[in-house]
Amino acid sequence: MWEAIRRWFDPRELRSVGSTPDYRFSLANERTFLAWLRTGLALIAGGLAAAQFLPRLPLAHLREVIAVALLLLGGTVAIRAVDHWARTERAIRLGEELPASRFPAVLALVVALGALLLVAAVLARGLG
Predict the structure, then answer these.
(1) Are the C-beta atoms of residues 31 and 89 closer than 8 Å to each other?
(2) Mean pLDDT value of segment 106-117
(3) How many CA atoms lie within 13 A of 84 on its CB side?
(4) At 54, is the secondary structure helix, strand, or coil?
(5) CA 112 to CA 16: how far, in whole Å?
(6) What's the number of CA atoms in the CB half-sphere (13 Å) around residue 103?
(7) Are 87 and 96 in contact (CB under 8 A)?
(8) C-alpha span between 8 and 70 (Å, rounded)
């Protein structure tokens, strides 16, 4: 794990592997990384907004749980983004198959579940 993290901060290590790819592939990989980073930032902003602007919900501390969950999810997405970028860049340089990831599906399910929980909380507050 620490070896992978060290690689994120050492561009010489990345460039020492394989051959220099067509720059368009590296730039596409970087754009994907930036899109994931924007997603992480949006989740973090949502967590802060939930903490500051959601009214008290019917269940004790539900607002705080939602805020913390969004903040943690945003941080996870950011870390996952840089790891995926590094693994993909390495695979491109080595001419290997790009790394597969279940993370987008997991993230989509977590966000959908969170949305359903929020709908239930809003309905409970409106009806109760």
Answers:
(1) no
(2) 89
(3) 22
(4) coil
(5) 41
(6) 17
(7) no
(8) 25
